[in-house]
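LAB NOTEBOOK - FOLDING QUEUE
OPERATOR: T.R.
BATCH SIZE: 2
PURPOSE: Compare the predicted structure-token outputs for two unrelated chains run back to back under identical settings.
PRIORITY: normal
REVIEWER: second-year student, initials M.K.

ITEM 1
FIELD SEQUENCE / FIELD STRUCTURE:
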Amino acid sequence: MAAAWPAVPLLAALALWVYAVRHTDVSALDDYGLVSALHPTFWAGLAVLTAGFWFTVRDPRRRAGWPAAYVLGLLVIERATQAVLYPTPLYAWAWKHDAVIDHLLTSGGLQSADRLGDMAVYDQWPGFFAAQAALVRLLGVDNAAMYMAWWPLVSSVLLLLPLLLIYRTFTEDRRLIWTAMWLFCVGNWVGQDYFSPQSVAFALHLGVLAVVLRRYGRPGGRQRQAVWTVLLSVLVIAIVVSHQLTPGMLVVTLLALAFTRRHRDWVPLVTTVVIFLAWCLTAALPFLSAAMPDMIRSVGDIGANVETGYGSTPTGTGAVATSWAARLLSGSVLLLALAGVLRQRALRQRALPLLLVAAAPLPMFVASSYGSEMIFRVLMFMLPGAAFFAAAALLPRVPAPITDARETERGGPPATAGAQRRRSPLPSLPPLRYAAWLSPLVLLAGTLAFVPSYSGKDRVNYFPPGEVALVRQLFDQAPDDSLVVAANRNYPLAYEQYWRVDHYWFLEDTRAHVDDIVRDPAAVLARDMAGVEAPARAYFLLTQRQVANSEMNGQLNTAQLRRVRESVADSPRFERVARNSAGVLYVLKPAS
């Protein structure tokens, strides 16, 4: 009976979560996103889950399977809540990727290299989309939208195995391993787990690190080393053909590891660089040739690379609060990691490669702004190492024991025969004076802070069925070569049939032109849309989520966009095609 005690808080937490999602209404989200809509039992479930995990993971009598079950339970509550609550997938970018897959399925190829427009980049990095097209065919579904709402949970679970292998390389203390896994799940709020190439590329990135940290530098003969090199090459190829940034992050991480005595084998680094350069100089060359001038100008401009641009500054109480929650969460994990490095001297020496994994992405600030997202990507790639040392700060001082056999494999001093027959038990050290209450409170605070950090912008990212239906009606009737004009690209199906319909998002234009539109909306928009020749048509689309995105990111406010809509509605140049509670659609009348 006592052995099954950990199941009680785990099942209680999941029961509270189920009750919460059944009693949560997402029909009217405010500036706090999902945070203010959630039923109170959701927060109670997270608290019960965190408490049960903390007392289970610190008990050496409990099997390792229980902490793993708690981490899986955490991922379900974190990542499956939105999939259960929302009837349509989140994120405009996820819908965009579905459109790319649909184009690949219907036409048998992506944009050709000579069309370096907004979407042609996917022709140079098609790995993720080709794999998803094959998965759609294998599952027998109509499109990827049938399952992409669950992708955050799937992609997050994919990270657990390589992360577990990495942490087990440096310690056998399951308290440290699973607390680090928990903190990684909590600190990974950046949102790159949605239906996207980077979600898979990041998992493959951790897979490469697991191979390098666990297998390279060990004795075993050339044949065994060749097998691991082949596996590593397959993983690197999958990364390189799928994503632009992840190979660069992998190169700087492997370079940092290569300068340590334990991982001074240059084969992984050279293999990665050769594969990366081969792809850049062949398939990706058209895009890189066009983008290279801007990329060169951004090198070394750290201030501009970390600065948010126009339309990227949160405004409004809810947007600012959730933004600060995310900053405080990441800052707390990094401060805990620093405390763990300073406090756990033996662990710092043993896990020096993980410290390098955490620090290696920092130079990428010098390289590029990556569309004002570099700071978020750097935080994400730092997290595997940072979470490990942050967990060490929450636990008693431990030497992070490694089995003698593993120490011998790494070239360490041979163990005695008696020591080889014994496994090092979990150390039974007294806890720090404050750890009995402060550590679980810190863990709980981070767990709760994940929700506003991850779901605080759901007012922007969630598209109600009415908005999906309105946009689908647009593309069902738009002739080839038509033009869709909208405030921004934050609406579902924004890239539907992008190979035959053009788009113009006026808030992405110069600020001077945006001001012209605000002064005389109908006249300026009619002039911008007048170049479309029959039988193609020019449409104006304005939806609730476009308005929310503009308002929450410091562009035009609701009153200004209402003025734009009313001006178009009153103009004789425009005819209303469709309208519902989620938005309105107009078409420009042919000039007489």
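ITEM 2
FIELD SEQUENCE / FIELD STRUCTURE:
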Amino acid sequence: MTSPSTENLPSPEPTAPTAQTTGAVAPGWDPPAVPTTRLPETPPGTPPEAPPEAPDQHPDHVPPSRRFLARAALVTASLSVAGSLLGLVRDQSLARLFGAGRDTDAFLVAWTVPEFAATLLIEDGLAFALIPAFSRALARRAQGAGGDPVRSLVAGTLPRLAPVFTAVGGLLALAAPQFVAALAPGLSDAGLAVDCTRLTATCVLSFGLAGYCSAALRAHRRFLAPAAIYIVYNLCIVAAMYAFGGRWGVRAAAFGVAAGGLLMVLVQLPSLIRVVGSRRGLTRDPVPPVAVEPRAVDVRLMATVLLFALCRQSQVLIERFLASGLPAGAISHLNYAQKVAQIPMSLSLMLCTVTFPVVARALAEGDTERARARVERDLAVAAALVLLGTAAVVACAPQLIALLFQRGAFTAADTAATAGVMRVYAIGLLGQTLTGVLVRSYFSAGRAAWYPVGAMTAGIAVTSCVGALALGSWGVTGIAAANATGITVTAALLLAGMRRRSVPVRTPLVLRELSRPLRAAVVAAVSGALVAALPATPLAALAAGTATVTVVFALLACVLGAQGCTCALRRVRTLTRRLAHALLR
């Protein structure tokens, strides 16, 4: 069975909602009020005028139905899970081939470049600026603006951004020795890190173009190709390590990063050409269309979103700077712990990836209430999912790391160190998720917002201070604790500023809702850890622990009335029935 594609998912018919059709409206979407007007009376005998011809409407101009959002979320989550699993295979291959020592430390310093590029150009920064811009262009197209606002936006942005990406990548390659010296001054093999950095610097251009394609496609409600990019990316890295690792060493992984970035662009390019080059969906104008001047993205907006993403990702810089002075392997232990612990966070944000264009389109059309309901629902569901994953990570950390990485050059001592770091790091996963949901709301209106930058700067300051103080006593575990503390402070500041500076969510209601799955997660983590300690083998312990966590969390969440858990369970049941029907029919 193949995954359902959202390239051409059916949207609701462009008709007014009725008693029969309102059930298909997406949750949080209130039908717009229809003004009542008194028509002028016509003299008797006057023939009735023909009704005006209805403009052509493209599915992109119709509010998405609940069924569409569910299917889009399923496709995005399925492909993202596949990409995350391949990311684990990538990390397993790195650990198996090169262990957790000076070679992997050198590569992971160079890995900072694609990590930053992915956050700045694909996942957060560029998307926060471009998705609202494309949403406004689509709204103007639906309202009958002359010409094609979407093509105008592409003409005004892509030719300006591509040379910037190229210049930054080239400058980074030239300054690789200085970059490595500043990032990890205590690194034992700086020359190897410089070689890897020059290879990974190419991803600034490729990730920038991939992020542009992804933002444009998601605004057009095309989620298949953007969700597949990390599959081809990780496959390319794994293939390069096994094909060239014997001759090139860890440099083969850096070459895989460069080749994988190119594939991320190529896999999205056909879909982008179709949605931007097509004339379908243009509203008929009463007058001939006029040329539209190319529109550029607001420079202040771009500055704020990139600064926020840069500040957020600088947590990695702080961690690696502090860990570079610790014994060899500390950076690797942090990396492996983060990669595994962040899986629940990544999955919990899949729904927001689908609904971010929905919120941006609602604000572009002036429907604040619809945007508020959507954001509150996203917060509840994302928090419930990430807290369930956090409880499982905390309960079964040693067994999970042993099964994933303990083979080849990765020893039992590496497993114990990585599991300890991961348990501490997981404490900040709720803050990571809330930050990811809330910052989308700040930038969904397509306006510059400096408050998120200030909130993230405060969190970075906390991370730096706590990390410096805890490094001497706790070592790498203190660095993980600093990360969790800093991002939690950022999430609290973002939530506190929502009402006045962003979508006006009801903060007391949101806090009460968050407390319910949080209490369930604490009890589930303790119960799962006790059960996971009983079986002798890691696989049996992991199965018993995760099953206990899931059952305890689900029962307590339902008893406490957590709406996010109830909504998530309802969606799981719906998707399960659909999959069973598709397999058994």
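REVIEWER COMMENT (ITEM 2): The chain is about 75% helix and 0% strand.
FOLLOW-UP: none requested
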